[in-house]
Specification:
Elements (H helix, E strand, L loop, with lengths): L1 H11 L28 H6 L21 E2 L13 E7 L11 E3 L2 E5 L5 E5 L5 E5 L21 E3 L2 E5 L4 E6 L5 E6 L14 E3 L2 E4 L11 E6 L5 E6 L12 H7 L11 E2 L6 E4 L4 E5 L3 E2 L3 H4 L11 E5 L6 E6 L14 E8 L2 E8 L5 E6 L5 E6 L7 E5 L4 E4 L10 E3 L13 E3 L4 E8 L2 E3 L25 H11 L1 E8 L4 E8 L7 E4 L3 E5 L4 E6 L5 E6 L9 E5 L2 E8 L4 H6 L11 E6 L25 H14 L1 H4 L17 H5 L1 H5 L18 H23 L3 H23 L1
Parallel strand pairs: 1-33
Antiparallel strand pairs: 2-39, 3-4, 4-5, 5-6, 7-8, 8-9, 9-10, 11-12, 12-13, 13-14, 15-18, 16-17, 17-19, 19-20, 21-22, 22-23, 23-24, 25-26, 27-30, 28-29, 29-31, 31-32, 33-34, 34-35, 35-36, 37-38, 38-39
Length: about 725
């Protein structure tokens, strides 16, 4: 049971026949009535009615964020003939999370460090690129990799949010910068990785940084000149300074203690949606700062508007309604996952609904006019923090002891969530939602000696892990951590089908009128499924993990399906999926039925012989393992197992070990994105971390270069142990 406890603590840290080319619903031919030469509200909203099938004008294709393509030339009868048409190499290994835009045959896609590329959507040829020149030495401020999820378009302009908090307008024809504005306070630990949205000429953007202790807000800017038009804070500040609006005064009554000293969180770091008819903007609000509500609000309270859906007037930012999914959230749950709008017949009545499947593991359906909760059923394989929702009050019924304040508690899902940021899609033909789901639990316990660190994560959860056996940890990960594609029926409120994956953190989904669902996996496969029953119909080996989201578009009478391929950021980095090939740059891949391109061969990974193991005590190795898990694992991977997006420290050449302190304590590589840690580490701590890394390097070298029968027996024993621990955990 001790091994089980170690693992559960370890797991909890991971929070980190060719068809016709037409619209089958209304018969609009490819490139039909609406040509998006100038993008406006009518053009973007047309996608919600399945018009203009050739283009992909907004993050979720239309304002409803359904990620449904009405193209059907690629369908169940011929998808097995899909071939690579072109690929584009971004020249960077650090993760591709974007959803591309496609406008009149030109693709616009963001990559690591907020770089924006314009590509010929037919050939993949780069037309221009815009580099906002994010300062690499500021990397310590960014929670989950130097990634970016996409751009927004309006008229002849594109808009991107940058890691360092700027909003930039770019001419979409030339790539020239038109204006730039700083949306976040300079010098504070805010970041932007999410895609902006444009509503009525206003560019809407949120930010991230809850783990670092910031106060969340969402802002709107004039698309013409970048002037800020309004700002809505999501949690209250210091009452002594007054409140920005009545909602903040109301929210403050749901907080206790000196919450503002912790920042309090509630960042709007990803999802948004808009209903043009109701003229309502919907935003998802994130987790608390710190995660542990016992620290940030020690005498109770719901902590509005954490983990809530908010409806605002886009012209003014005026509050209309809210629904809080997880009052007083304490598990790193968020409402920042995909928000999807649809018009459905709910219990025999036509309803305008908002649907979300966030981290907490329940599938929420709200009336998007009023915010009324219509349904909250568990879509996750296991949920332990709450038994159900009281439909009279709209509140969850929490399970006693799951807040981990009195004692450690085993939580399902853990903070990584039953569904993270990876976008889901809705197919109006099948009536199903396609969710990149995952199954993962972990033991949470309160941090006994919490102290806020200005440049680092502040969760209030004990993240100290002392685990030295990488082979065992990888076996446990593969056994305990499950990723799968989930088709959910919102009307029946139940699972329609599932398709299993090897691990979690897999890419977003695309559904099409060809009755297909496309999804990439973090282990490098791009797949097409039968949207009705989940049968796998096609797959392609991308040579790199896929965490971004596919789109479909048309050029010259051909349907294309495109997806960014490049592991990195958040889940991918923290989990550290073992890779067996040399690092591959992030790529944009595009497929057609007539494609004839192929990817270049990749070389098998070769690693240097590690330096001699330093003569250190077991206590020092344990000190190094704990310090590594706290300060290093969110970028370089749990147990020093990197996903390849960032260098695998087990494969360091001798020169880097000789200069270890210069890198870690003096900032020798700050200009490349490796921050200095001399504010929390001294030479002894750095030496302990280095010793732990070398220990793991020796294990890796032995596994690869000198495998033995004894090692095979150990691996078999590890699998038996993992299977047994999983069985016991599922009984709890």
């Amino acid at each position: 049971m001790q091994n089980m406890k170690i693992f559960l603590t370890f797991i909890s840290l991971l929070f980190f026949t060719a068809g016709t080319f037409s619209n089958p619903l209304n018969g609009t031919p490819l490139g039909g009535e609406i040509i998006a030469t100038e993008i406006d509200q009518k053009a973007i909203h047309a996608a919600d009615s399945n018009l203009d099938p050739a283009n992909w004008l907004s993050y979720g294709r239309g304002y409803f964020e359904q990620r449904y393509s009405p193209l059907n030339a690629i369908n169940q009868s011929n998808v097995d003939q899909l071939k690579l048409a072109w690929f584009f190499d971004t020249g960077n290994t650090q993760g591709l999370q974007a959803t591309p835009l496609v406008i009149d045959g030109v693709m616009y896609v963001t990559a690591a460090w907020s770089v924006l590329h314009a590509l010929d959507a037919k050939t993949g040829q780069e037309l221009w690129r815009f580099d906002p020149e994010v300062p690499r030495e500021e990397n310590f401020r960014y929670c989950c990799g130097v990634v970016n999820r996409g751009a927004a378009a309006w008229q002849d302009r594109l808009f991107i949010g940058t890691l360092d908090g700027r909003l930039i307008a770019v001419d979409r024809h030339s790539g020239q910068s038109l204006w730039s504005t700083q949306t976040t306070p300079k010098g504070e630990n805010y970041s932007i990785t999410g895609a902006p949205r444009v509503v009525k000429g206003k560019v809407i953007i949120g930010n991230g940084g809850s783990e670092y202790g910031v106060r969340g807000f969402v802002s709107a800017y004039d698309a013409n000149d970048g002037e800020m038009l309004w700002r809505f804070y999501t949690v209250p500040g210091n009452p002594a300074n007054g409140f920005e609006n009545p909602q903040m005064e109301l929210a403050a009554k749901t907080w206790t203690g000196n919450w503002w000293e912790h920042g309090a969180g509630g960042t709007v770091w990803d999802s948004m949606a808009y209903d043009p008819e109701l003229d309502l903007l919907y935003i998802g609000v994130g987790n608390g700062a710190p995660h542990n509500r016992n620290i940030r609000s020690p005498f109770g309270g719901d902590n509005l508007f954490l983990c809530s859906i908010l409806a605002l007037k886009p012209d003014t930012g005026e509050y209309v309604w809210h629904y809080q999914e997880v009052p007083a959230e304490t598990w790193d749950y968020t409402a920042t996952q995909s928000i999807v709008l649809a018009d459905i017949k709910w219990q025999g009545v036509d309803r305008k609904v908002l649907m979300q499947a966030p981290k907490a593991g329940f599938f929420y359906i709200l009336d998007r006019e009023t915010g009324e909760l219509l349904s909250a059923e568990p879509f996750a394989k296991k949920v332990t923090w709450a038994s159900h929702y009281d439909m009279e009050t709209g509140r969850p019924v929490e399970v006693a002891g799951q807040d981990y304040t009195a004692a450690p508690a085993m939580i399902y899902p853990v903070g990584l969530g039953a569904h993270n940021w990876h976008p889901m899609s809705y197919n109006p033909m099948t009536g199903l939602m396609y969710i990149p789901a995952q199954h993962i639990g972990g033991e949470l316990k309160q941090e006994s000696d919490y102290k806020r660190l200005p440049r680092h994560w502040n969760t209030g959860v004990d993240t100290s892990v002392d685990m030295h056996n990488a082979a065992l940890s990888q076996t446990l990960l593969k056994t305990f951590v499950e990723g799968y594609l989930l088709a959910w029926d919102p009307i029946k409120q139940q699972v329609a089908w599932t398709a299993e994956h090897k691990t979690i953190g897999n890419g977003g989904t695309l559904s099409t009128a060809g009755e297909l669902v496309f999804q990439g996996t973090v282990d490098g496969l791009f797949k097409a499924y039968n949207a009705i029953n989940g049968q796998e119909l096609w797959r392609f080996n991308s040579q790199n993990g896929i965490v971004g989201s596919p789109v479909s578009y048309g050029v010259d009478g051909k349907q294309f399906v495109s997806v960014p391929a490049g592991r990195g950021g958040g889940l991918s980095q923290i989990i550290g999926i073992q890779h067996e090939v040399t690092n591959v740059n992030g790529r944009i891949l595009a497929f057609t039925l007539s494609g004839s391109e192929s990817l270049p061969a990749v070389e098998k990974l070769t690693i240097p012989k590690p330096p001699a193991m330093p003569q250190v005590s077991d206590g020092m190795l344990s000190q190094g393992a704990i310090a590594y898990s706290r300060f290093c694992s969110r970028c370089h991977g749990t147990n020093v197992v990197s996903d390849g997006a960032i260098p695998d420290l087990r494969h360091l050449e001798t020169v880097w070990h000789d200069n270890f302190n210069a890198v870690v304590l003096e900032g020798m590589m700050a200009s490349a994105g490796m921050p200095r840690f001399d504010d929390v580490l001294d030479k002894q701590s750095a030496a302990a971390i280095q010793a732990f890394i070398i220990e793991q390097a020796h294990q890796e070298y032995q596994r690869r270069e000198h495998p033995s029968r004894l090692m095979a027996v150990k691996n078999w024993a590890y699998q038996q142990l993992a299977d047994g621990l999983k069985f016991l955990s599922e009984l709890q």
